[in-house]
Amino acid sequence: MLKFIKHHMDTISGIEIYPIISLSIFFLFFALLLVWVFTYSKDKIKELSDIPLQED
């Protein structure tokens, strides 16, 4: 079954770009998420972490 799929994928021209694009999107998403986490305000994190403890 895998041999059939591999042969079928080899016959499609230009398909080799799709794994590169998906890896790039995956890497870019997590790199931006990492940047956002490290640049987020410590005061805002403290404020959000205190929300469950507030009695309104």
Average pLDDT confidence is 89
Main pleated sheet: none
Work out the radius of gyration.
22 Å
- Helix fraction by DSSP (H/I, runs of at least 4): over 70%
Number of helices: 3
Low-confidence stretches: none
Number of strands: 0
* Amino-to-carboxy terminus distance: 60 Å
Instruction: Give the class from helix and strand content and strand pairing.
Output: mainly alpha
Given the C-alpha coordinates, what overall shape results? elongated
How much of the sequence is in beta strands?
under 5%
Task: Kindly report the oligomeric state of this protein.
Answer: single chain
Pattern of helices and strands: HHH
Q: Could you characterize what this model shows?
A:
- With 56 residues, this protein is mainly α.
- Helix content is 71%, strand content 0%.
- It contains 3 helices and no strands.
- The protein has helices at 2-10, 17-39, 42-49.
- The protein is elongated.
- The termini are far apart.
- 0% of the residues are buried.
- The mean pLDDT is 89.
